[in-house]
Amino acid sequence: MDRKPFQHRDKAFLLLDGLLVGALSGGVAVFYRYILGIMEDWRHLLFEWTSMRGLVFLIAAAVLSAIIVIRLLKWAPLSGGSGIPQVQGEILGIFRMSAFPVAVSKIIGGSLATLIGLALGREGPSIQIGAAMGKIFSKGVQRDKTKEKLLITAGAAAGLSAAFSAPLAGVLFSVEEIHKNTSKAMIAVTLTASIVADYIAAYVFKLTPVFSFTITELLPLKYYGHIIALGAITAVVGVLFCKGIVLGQRFYQRLPIPVHFRMIFVFLTAVLIGHFLPDILGGGHHVIENLESNPEAVQYIALLLAGRFLFTCFSFGSGVQGGIFLPILVIGGIVGILYHRFILSLGLIPDYYLANMIVLSMTAILTAVVRAPILSIILVLEMNGNLNQMLGLCMASSVAYFVSEFLKEKPIYETLLQRMIEKGPEGEEATYESTIFETIVPHGSKLENKRIKDIGLPENCLLIEIKRGGELYIPKGKMVLQGGDEIAILTTDYDVYTLRESLREYLAVDQY
Fold this sequence. Notes:
By secondary structure, the protein is mainly alpha-helical.
């Protein structure tokens, strides 16, 4: 074959690109995280200003912030919401985001939402900001479409790494959420970018992991029955959360007021809630830490769970620049606290296992909502830093995965992406520029033991290379695919989504 997807020289340059994208994407994402920290401090000051003048100022700030957000969303339509479905759509060729407007809109809009107190997270926006920086870098150095997608993925991984101080989670996010398949080139470039981003967060900006509580006691095996119960309960909450997010979007769209006033209504609602129950506002990481160190009444914790659940769905439904990654973890953590208080009242467990229940429920709910079990386990491990919890986290994640699959609830980001596709693509139009789609033939799939000529790839898709046991083969019609084969398919940016959808028919595992 005359052309290989990645020659050795290309791989060296790709790693260098990954390093530079990690520095650029990680730097901007860490800056965004730093700005949001300042906005949170300002919000606390605003809501402590209880005079009439302070209330008028807060209302004016909320209205002005809503108007700015509306303008930003008109300028960069793909900057609304979490940003993760947009990155998935970009990789699939469904969307083509205007990278600079999206990044600017995400930073300003997310900062204003945090200032007023909408219950949204910074992780999804950090991922999209990182992806946008990866695209800007790729355009600047004139990389082809295949490498551009890898650099966008690397930027997204760096964004997650910077947001959570979790580089391995950044890599796994790329595999389980964005591409849902892997290649050596993707692992190498995303790992490089994630490590650089984490270094910038930890050693340049001196940022620490989002959650700082520690586990002092390892949960004994005799209490592992509680992991099964907690995993199942948290999974049900996660499934309800997925449904609530969609209902929140529908509720916002059906508000009986003009479109321009809906965003103002959402921001003013945050002001109202902040005066009665301020712990519901914002991403909520401080809430978990406070509850872990300062126990509250069960009734208050239950109210906090219901309030954060509903207000997160309401906030996200508005389309403001903000994500649900962190709110998901916070809701899961509160479920873990309530479960611990319940079994503690029955004398079934000592009180010093509270932190264990929090991290177990966080893992379970993230698995149930996102349906990425390995990512969920590694992310919580990196935030907590205690590898002794591995067995318990794996059990909680497995139970949550089984329950959510049994309840037949689709992963939230698949649902959000599908809803965006149904609305129609926004941003720049997709092109017919060529790109290479790489994947691995899963063992036990319908693609295994199938002749190439019987696959029936869509139009504009051509299998150009098979790598088996370290050897490269030129595809021929009578050649039979084997499990573990690394295949490269030449297609266009426009046809990537169609290709991936057609491959679903040949896979017995949920890889796409």
